[in-house]
């Protein structure tokens, strides 16, 4: 009340909107956001470059201040070449490739980086392979060890050799198809695709109980391989940008980042494939219980039980099946493609290897029509050396697989430098497998003889540091299956045919190795075949 005239006085208080509303225009808001972004970006540059614990480690300027740099290199498919060039230019054995990550290419450092208790970073849990978590994604070593014990048994060599007769059937069908379609027709074909066809039929047989029919139909069934490569590309991007991805996943946009069966292609396509296989198996189990006598990996996932008798969740089984697709087939096909490209480009090595194979068959130490993997590994040392040299020079997963430096573990010291706690550290199989300190000054050359030198003692050292299948307790579960395939499939190919690479042309381009995401694959290994007369094989 106004004490003098008895009226009520209304006090007007300006609201922020009324006061600043005239200034809240679209251009002003955009300008303000741009300034805020610029300030944040400048702060990030200054902090990461001059105040971060990794400030004293050499690396490219943009790589030290933003993850966009190595993501861009990966998208271009030149990440490994770029790292190799920078390591040489800066004359260093440790390269800072992102604000929080160091690349350590030395093979001798692998035991320190990938030790038993090493923790994986969030690079692995972006949702690129779907919402579930497989043993590949699990960050904590204790969590990984628990679930690895549940599913590792069927992957063992003793269990995998029981699948050899079934694998032999696929190899024989593959050889016959190559003969009918190409050798008999004197027709050029792309071996990179056919190597992958054989590998996909093997992994689908061992993993899910029946071959998907890549060899039989002579096609990429439902474009599965093409969609897998698209998924690799996405995986490479979101892994490198995981802090941003983790932030977005907490918003309403997160559902667009995690791969799902609703996605049209890439990993979404593979998830739909996996779901269809799992539903068919669930129906089969419901109708017939365990009487079907299944021995494939999918069945072992369903039958796995922990100490409390609990089964794996559906999401976990789906994740392990996805891992079979992404890591179990195209990877073996890549090594087979590498063998073709390397051997047919080295006539002396090729002739020596074929002579050893022929002599082993003629002496009876290799069974017909398809020898056991154990027979090959025991009696064909030069062939085995060719396989291992191909694995060394062309690891199917050649890229970064980071671990976290922990406070509760022994300090990580590389070349006299202590790596700060909390740092992401990684090597790459591509670089570690070419380390001159282990493999010699000619480490970049294809020379299988290196594995047999010093009465095989050199090969033992190489085996210790070979990073193609990963390293340490988290190495690839499917290694034994891959080695069985590699002991048999390429050997039978070289036994059955005289292959020759086509001269480069528009129709038959030169072989090329392609990096997509974290994976290598081959393209354009164009060749022609001449059928060989081999005893004990029915064409």
Automatic annotation (TrEMBL):
The keyword Transmembrane helix applies. Its cofactor is heme. The chain crosses the membrane at residues 29-48. Pfam families: p450 (PF00067). Heme binds at residue 476. PROSITE patterns: CYTOCHROME_P450. One of its GO terms (molecular function) is monooxygenase activity. The keyword Iron applies. It comes from the Eukaryota. Belongs to the cytochrome P450 family. This is Similar to cytochrome P450 monooxygenase.
